[in-house]
Amino acid sequence: FTEQMSAELASALRGSDLEQIQRLWQQIQDSIREDRFQDQLFAFQRIVSLMEKQLPALKPLVSDNFWETLDAIFSDAFRKIVQNNRELHRQHIDQLASQVVRQIEQSYADSDLSPTRIADSLGMSSAYLGRIFRESMQTSISQYLNQTRIRRAEELLRETEQPVETVAGLVGFSNPKYFYVVFKNITGQTPLQFRKAVHSASEKN
Fold this sequence. Notes:
Layout: H1 3-14, H2 18-34, H3 37-58, H4 64-107, H5 115-121, H6 126-137, H7 141-159, H8 164-170, H9 176-187, H10 191-204
Helix pairs in contact: 1-2, 1-3, 4-6, 4-7
């Protein structure tokens, strides 16, 4: 974007040559889009710098209504930029959360699986990944891991006659006592109470 182009654009504006204005502006946009990001910033700054030189000649042509219109255009552009940024952020955190969920669904039976181990596998700090996951899923990684393990434990208690201690180990709890605590916190029942209630319901049916 050269000084000559800015002068031609200003001249077209003064001459009310809309076709020439649009043609020049399209050339400017095309040249910016073809450049790398760093060069786009330079091109934008260059446009502002060169157009400032044309302002004295353009000022008589600019009305108060023009500035209101320009303000509306920029305000709308800023809103779109913010909206796009939020959408990109949401996509990013949802993609990361999906990777965490996938790991948990695949490896919940591994008693060594933990938020720290998951974060390490993704090359992130556990604190950062924890914030991202909570923002996306409205729960912590630890809570989701426990909920997944207990959900699977419910299936085993319902469908098999395996001892509770065995079920605990199959869903990733190396400590049966801790399994009892987590199971009751999530379901409101102990594993034995849950199994008994399931059997009673099936007998009635």
